Amino acid sequence: MTSAINGSAQPATAASTTADKTPPLAVDRMIETVDLGIAFGKGRQRKQVVDGVSISIARGESYGLIGESGCGKSTLLRALTGQNPHYAGAILYQNREQHPVRDKAFYRQIQMVFQDPYASLHPRKMVYHTLLEPLVIHGMDRRETRISDVLDAIGLGDAFRYRYPHQLSGGQRQRVALARALIIEPQVLLLDEPTSALDVSVQAEILNLLKTLRRERNLTYLMVTHNLAVVAHLCDRVAIMHQGKLLEEMTADEIRRGSATEPYTQQFLAASNH
Ligand SMILES: Nc1ncnc2c1ncn2[C@@H]1O[C@H](COP(=O)(O)OP(=O)(O)OP(=O)(O)O)[C@@H](O)[C@H]1O
After folding, report:
1. How remote is the CA of residue 41 from the centroid of ligand 1, in Å?
2. Which atom of ligand 1 lies at the shortest distance from residue 5's CA?
3. How far is CA 236 from CA 30, 43, 86, 232, 249, in A?
4. How far is the CA of 144 from the centre of ligand 1 (A)?
5. How far is the CA of 169 from the centre of ligand 1 (A)?
6. Which residue among 74, 193, 231, 272 has the greatest number of ligand 1 atoms within 8 angstroms of its CB, and so is best to mutate?
């Protein structure tokens, strides 16, 4: 929560801090962090939670972030979404450094899907109003058609527009949360453990849906997860974090084969596979 943050890292000033650190331009770079640092607390209480993390995610790529609990994954994701403006280093979208405080145009392109579909939907809002709201905020036209289309795309169908969250299963709620993110046609989805609150059988359905949506819409995913099966199913590349640092990047294939270079990663993969 931004209100609880008393991070002491200096906010990055747009286009000022990284001129000498930014890697050479790649044509299709969608998301990048350059030497990202996030700390909480002051003085002896200060804790560096994200420490010099540089990642680069291409357009259309699905990138996973894994690591033990407390290693800084969600903190990194929150900085990317603009929920924590107190960071050092730089965050770039489509080669442009972002101001730590994001504007509406940013959220038109980048949407977030959270872990808990029970907490993320307003209990007194019909699906229709949940989906209408982002269209109004972003001044988009053809609202009725867009609502029907997105309900079809996420596999619920138009009749679901009249349901309230308590009339939906966990998997259906997560589909609505996905529909809410997709309805404004973003390019990037930031996914924070999007299946971990769901039953195992439903997890597979949502993962398959995410896979299909990415292919159909050429979406870019950045996904935080504990779950190696999720990574193997959905991610092209994975970063392993440990105590705030990026330890190693691997392809999904390398993860499946367990061919890590770093001893910590080898242990982490072995433990996660039990
Ligand atoms: N607002 C905050 N103020 C102080 N400390 C924080 C704050 N947010 C996170 N932390 C601390 O930062 C560390 C990393 O937390 P983070 O939520 O990023 O971990 P994570 O890797 O996502 O863990 P998990 O997998 O359990 O969700 C933790 O020690 C946490 O207590």
Report:
1. 12
2. 1
3. 15, 40, 30, 8, 11
4. 40
5. 29
6. 74
Mutation test residue for ligand 1: of 42, 75, 272, the one with most atoms within 8 Å of CB: 75
CA distance readout (Å), 168 to 18, 94, 162, 191: 46, 37, 11, 21
Q: Which domains does the chain have, with CATH numbers?
A: 2-102+109-115+187-272 (3.40.50.300)
Q: pTM score > 0.90 for this model?
A: no
Q: What is the pLDDT of residue 268?
A: 83
Alpha carbon nearest to ligand 1 atom 29, residue: 70
User: pLDDT, tens digit, for every residue of 179-225?
Assistant: 999 999 999 999 998 888 888 888 899 999 999 999 999 999 999 98
Q: What H or E segment, with its residue span, contains residue 49? A: strand 47-58
Nearest CA to ligand 1 atom 25: 69
* Coil, strand or helix at 90: strand
The residue among 251, 249, 191, 195 whose CA lies nearest residue 219 is 191
- Which residues form ligand 1's pocket by a CB distance below 6 Å? 4-5, 40, 49, 67, 69-75, 226
| Residue 72: Cβ-neighbour burial (10 angstroms; 0-12, 13-18, 19+) | buried
Q: Is 102 left (phi over 0), alpha (psi -120 to 50) or beta?
A: beta
Residues 6+ apart with CB under 8 A from 34: 18, 21, 22, 23, 54, 89, 90, 91, 92
Sheet architecture: strand order including 96-97? 47-58, 29-40, 88-93, 96-97
Exposed, middle or buried: residue 39 (CB in 10 Å: 0-12, 13-18, 19+)? buried
